[in-house]
Amino acid sequence: MKTTIKEAKNYLNQEVTIGGWLHNKRSSGKIAFLQLRDGTGFMQGVVVKAEVSEDTFQLAKNITQESSLFVTGVITEDTRSDLGYEMQVKSIEVIDEAHDYPITPKNHGTEFLMDHRHLWLRSKKQHAVMKIRNEIIRATYEFFNNNGFTKIDPPILTASAPEGTSELFHTKYFDEDAFLSQSGQLYMEAAAMAHGKVFSFGPTFRAEKSKTRRHLIEFWMIEPEMAFYNHDDSLEVQEQYVTHIVQSVLKNCTIELKTLERDTEKLAKVATPFPRISYDDAVTFLKEEGFDDIEWGEDFGAPHETAIANHYDLPVFITNYPTKIKPFYMQPNPENEDTVLCADLIAPEGYGEIIGGSERINDLALMEQRINEHELDAESYSYYLDLRKYGSVPHSGFGLGLERAVAWISGVEHVRETSPFPRLLNRLYP
């Protein structure tokens, strides 16, 4: 019977065959322990010299790291294992023998590991991060599908930019200028006028020359837009969504979280409603905390966001930023025209902003004014202005950066480990 490591629990005390790779091994004179992986998980195979042929035992002792195998044996209970079971190996068939595998069990430098990212993905911790990423994606579709959203796919090649052209990758679209999308938001607003509640999930690009642990050149965004939703309505959706993905990972990725040594008690605290602090109060708080460098009207940096998040020990919304430091499409705050109805959701433990969102301007004249003030090409945004001409309604939306969310939930330090093949300032390989 062929099965996988994940499904082997269904065959306790039965003989099965599993196709996989040798992750690691150790042996003594009479027993060999094989650490096997097959993509679904990691499992120990025990080879006892007295219970197998001499050829099989010698093969178990000599087989090399990352060789591919068919391993046959009986699945038995093992309470010391995270899985709760292991295999008593009876026979081994080598499919392909690997030689001089470059990533050995010793420590390697980050640049070396990034150069070998295609192989580093096989490691136990990197495997766990990708499993958590996958669970967040699965839970994302579950949340929005269960709450009446329609998935719409915006284009990746665009003629205009939602947040200005300074951080865009330029390309030629035959005889026209085009850009790689930095956000699908403007198109999702159009889709919301057709479907009410929509979301997109796809790659976005920022030509930002940043080397921080929070930044990637290419990353994935989840971007919902909701017709007839005001700013407060949107904040409720955001906290419900983030709570859902955190709880889903806690429920379905227990082994992976343990592999990463994640403090799950901190994740278990994540529940609605999230604390909120206005930009004005945040500036006051930061000054009281000794950040004398911050002045009203300036954007917050990583140390500022971390100080605010640490104060709450939960995801926290910072609301109503100054108009001049936010994109052109955000609805003015009726209580203070110098600010807009927006919020950034700051993750705890120093992971920074994971969501940016706002109520969108729905008045045609004001939108035209904003486009002019930001010196944008009105013709490129004519379709966007049409949304305010033909049945405009109050609407709101937000964008969650997948890799930052994965970094926070999995507890890894740098977002480069949360993307299968990260694109960084000086890295386009592999």
From TrEMBL:
GO terms for biological process: asparaginyl-tRNA aminoacylation. The lineage of its organism: Bacteria, Bacillati, Bacillota, Bacilli, Bacillales. GO terms for molecular function: asparagine-tRNA ligase activity; ATP binding; catalytic activity, acting on a protein; nucleic acid binding; transferase activity. The keyword ATP-binding applies. Its EC number is 6.1.1.22. Gene3D superfamilies: Bira Bifunctional Protein, Domain 2, Nucleic acid-binding proteins. The gene is asnS. It catalyses: tRNA(Asn) + L-asparagine + ATP = L-asparaginyl-tRNA(Asn) + AMP + diphosphate + H(+). It comes from Staphylococcus lloydii. It is found in: Cytoplasm. This is Asparagine--tRNA ligase. Keywords: Aminoacyl-tRNA synthetase, ATP-binding, Cytoplasm, Ligase, Nucleotide-binding, Protein biosynthesis. One of its GO terms (cellular component) is cytoplasm. Belongs to the class-II aminoacyl-tRNA synthetase family. Residues 130-430 form the Aminoacyl-transfer RNA synthetases class-II family profile domain. Homodimer. The keyword Cytoplasm applies. CDD domains: AsnRS_cyto_like_N, AsxRS_core.
